[in-house]
Amino acid sequence: MVTVRNYDIPALRKLDVAHHLPAQSSYGLQVELGGSRIITHAKGSTIHDGDGHAILDAMAGLWCVNVGYGRPELVEVAARQMTELPFYNTFFRTATVPPIELAAKVAGLLGGNLQHVFFNNSGSESNDTVFRLVRTYWALKGEPKRTIFISRHNAYHGSTVASASLGGMDFMHVQGGLPIPGIEHVMQPYPFGDGFGEDPAAFATRAAQAIEDRILAVGPENVAAFIGEPVQGAGGVIIPPPGYWQRVEAICRKYGILLVSDEVICGFGRLGEWFGFQHFGIRPDIVSMAKGLSSGYLPISATGVSSDIVEVLRASGEEFVHGYTYSGHPVSAAVALRNIQIIEDEHLVERTREDSGPYLASALADRLSPHPLVGEARSLGLIGAVEIVAEPGTNRRFGRGGQAAAIVRDACIARGLMVRAVRDSIVMSPPLVITPAEIDQLVDTIAVTLDTCADQLAALR
Ligand SMILES: Cc1ncc(COP(=O)(O)O)c(C=O)c1O
After folding, report:
1. How far, in Å, is the centroid of ligand 1 from the Cα of 392?
2. What is the CA(236)–ligand 1 centre distance, in A?
3. Residues whose CB is less than 8 angstroms from the CB of residue 237 and which lie 6 or more positions away in sequence, other chains included
4. How far apart are CA 285 and CA 310, in angstroms?
5. Ligand 1 in contact with 124 (CB < 6 A)?
6. What number does the ligand 1 atom closest to the CA of 234 have?
7. pLDDT tens readout for residues 25-60
8. Is the distance from CB of 422 to CB of 236 less than 8 angstroms?
9. Do the Cβ atoms of 373 and 389 come closer than 8 Å?
10. I need a labelling partner for 161 at 20 to 30 A (CA). Which of 16, 133, 362, 458 fits?
């Protein structure tokens, strides 16, 4: 590991407050707290901050550092590519070597007729690409009225105008006059929140039926696509009940609507398959990927597109007038390709499915499910959530929505565990290289933290 530089952290915090506007942040709170927590270095599943704390990163950065931190292979491949060719674009019938190789590799992982890949730089941009591609496809196919997207409440598809509109986060829509027209949001398949006590099969039917009802309400001839995350991540690790995705797929097929799987979190092994749609046994027409594609080492995202869609674009003779300067950036693509090779060589997908995923699930079941402050502890592969409740056996929340989880999250971080709070739950999505001992540490830290926070939580009642 390289020698970590000696930083003047207090001075950096002052500069942070004076000049830096961090993403998705309260700038008032940034001032109040005297600046951000500054992460200086990391290795494996552990990050280190400038104040000397070692923190187990149960969020894999931001649901993305699948192969863990400190991978010299990725540094080497980036340096080699930067030396050979740091940049050339993919506009105007040119390409470079890495995006071609990466597209072929990703197409192989996607399988079936998902044989084409468009590159972007972020999950949000991928979903912007989806937005324009889907509408362009229908127009070129001679069905220009098909413009409406159906999505779910509490979905997260990104932060650009189109992707935040596709998302179903009301608090994001409030800012900037979103959503843009042409997007319909229906109920999410959230058993603990919206289907508590309901038979899972009946709830799956009800949640899928909401999609069909909306299609019929707006007119199937006007609907372009349905978009969903296989497991909603930022919305609080919402794992749909068995049968939900099969029903959704059948509804899309019934009305000839494109099915878009947003795999920005679920892709590249998170659920114990290369993609979430493979876990749920469905076949989307379009797939958004980012995060685990490069394990966050460099920004890159990809939009997988079916041959049927590409055939329509090809036959039209029209240009798809969409793309970014850095679409298929050679250095990012080279790093992504090597990252995929690490996932393959170390069998991280299989390990998540057969070992670490089940290990996390049983640790949550044994040590957190029985806790009186836990309403549900759920996981799938290496993504999970712990629902904090005011009364055991119920889904009754503490007052002041979201405060309970924020208290527990902050206390976890103080104990050396990085987790996130989503409403009244603690969510986790650790690197796929996390060890059993680290999973024990993750789960035990949440259990002890809940104990120590009990009085503070009780005061919220
Ligand atoms: C499912 C999903 N889609 C899209 C995005 C947006 O990705 P980005 O932040 O890279 O723009 C995210 C980010 O968390 C996500 O979880």
Report:
1. 33
2. 13
3. 231, 378, 379, 383, 384, 385, 422, 425, 427, 428, 429
4. 11
5. yes
6. 16
7. 999 999 999 999 999 999 999 999 999 999 999 999
8. yes
9. yes
10. 16
